[in-house]
Amino acid sequence: MAGESANIYAEITSALHGVRLDRALATLVPELSRERVKALILGGHVTGPGGAQVNDPSLKVRAETAFALDIPEAAPAEAVAQQIDLVIAFEDEHLIVIDKPAGMVVHPAAGNPDGTLVNALLHHCAGQLSGVGGVARPGIVHRIDKDTSGLLVVAKSDRAHEGLARQFKDHSIDRRYLAIVSGVPAPPAGTVDTWIGRSDANRQKMAVQRDGRGKHAVTHFRTVERLDKAALVECRLETGRTHQVRVHMAHVGHPLLGDQAYGRGGPHKALLAELDFHRQALHAARLGFIHPVTSQAVSFESPIADDMQRLFSHLAP
What we know:
alpha+beta, eleven-stranded mixed β-sheet, three-stranded antiparallel β-sheet, 16 strands, 30% strand, elongated
């Protein structure tokens, strides 16, 4: 559908008799999400018997009734396409897995209008985006912080976007981070189960909320290797809240080295300055999910970023 409008015809089967129009058409046209179908109906792009326009997504359909969907050309994205080198772990017609470097922002925002991952993907995927929500843009289903390196998956179609978003919502995505933290956790493994919300003291930061405000957040951690007054820790996310690993590890007394927001400097301050290491020591090392179109289980791994590897080497006993 990229680059031009398309007409799709769908006939209601007996199994769909009596269900809502938007649900029935989403079932018959699986490349479109139900929300996208609903938007098409409300936008006057669906006609029924005799060419009559249908504007009610909740209309109960009858078997053997035919509907036509006029899929308009995907509107251009607001962000500008830019040629920026990307490290691609996997790509097919439905999605792309990127190994993001530290320092790259995922999505344009105030203060970062360009040079982002979205700008790079608009160039790299030009002509391949079938329209997420009717716009020719990459479907961002999760983000990692600007100064965190590693893997993230991006949808190239509406169907892939909906399928991935559903997996993130039900917490079935396998997301594992490697972090270098201050001190050595004791016990060496555990689970941090809290609520995370905006800090009352600093709205730019997140904080553990003891009164149940914010969103439920669960991180499972284990010590991979003991270092000099530090440790390499693997954190497996059960949920995916903003700054979750950074907030949770600081909460248990082991902030990430280099973390300007949640760290406290400590005995590694001189080493971090010597290595010119000025970001949180956090890398999205593993990403696993069910491919939203092929239904195959896929998993990707990324070696620890070079700057973190140097830091690790200097701390290794």
